[in-house]
Design a protein that fits this description.
This protein has about 170 residues and is α+β, with helices and mostly antiparallel strands. Helix content is about 25%, strand content about 25%. Strands 1, 2, 3, 4, 5, 6 and 7 form a 7-stranded antiparallel β-sheet that branches.
């Protein structure tokens, strides 16, 4: 799991550069959708210029594959175990499985647990053993309200995920 998180730090450096070099307001509390889109486009462009293969799901979640696993993708009601770290584009860690779960892994029933849309969409394309990094626009996360006090309005999220295990749902 450390490889995803060390690679995540590379992306966060770009995010910090964008946040510091842009003329956006310091506070995310009055951030606009237009500001988010400018920052998001700059981040994706810089990643691609650095040689990262940034792809997009049909819904608009950007992702980088750090390690491709094998086997099936999770299906509704499968039990999945993941490790994750979630950051804001300014480098602030807002959530991590390391601080919350045994063995640093969150185990839950896929599509039964309430997740942000962007994370559900991202997990849907992963295979067991995969390590992905998701760049989730606010429209697929917490939108124009945010999740105070840490996540402000129109805040893009960067989430590194390792899918450790998929246990098929019992029929």
């Amino acid at each position: 799991m450390n490889s995803v998180f060390s690679k995540l730090s590379i992306i966060l450096v770009f995010g910090l550069f964008i946040a510091m070099s842009s003329c956006m307001k310091d506070s995310t509390s009055d951030r606009t959708e237009a500001e988010e889109l400018i920052e998001l486009n700059e981040l994706i462009l810089k990643l691609e210029m650095r040689g990262y293969d940034v792809d997009t799901t049909d819904s608009g979640v950007y992702y980088i594959i750090h390690e491709q696993g094998s086997g099936p993708n999770p299906a509704p009601y499968d039990t999945v175990s993941i490790g994750y770290e979630g950051y804001l584009t300014n480098g602030v860690l807002f959530d991590t499985s390391v601080d919350k779960y045994d063995n640093d892994q969150w185990k839950f029933v896929y599509m039964q647990q309430v997740l942000i849309k962007g994370l559900n969409d991202g997990l849907a394309i992963m295979k067991e053993g995969s390590e992905y990094e998701f760049i989730i626009p606010s429209k697929l996360a917490y939108g124009d309200f945010g999740a105070p006090p840490t996540i402000g309005p129109f805040q893009t999220l960067i989430v590194g995920v390792k899918l450790f295990d998929i246990k098929p749902a019992m029929d």
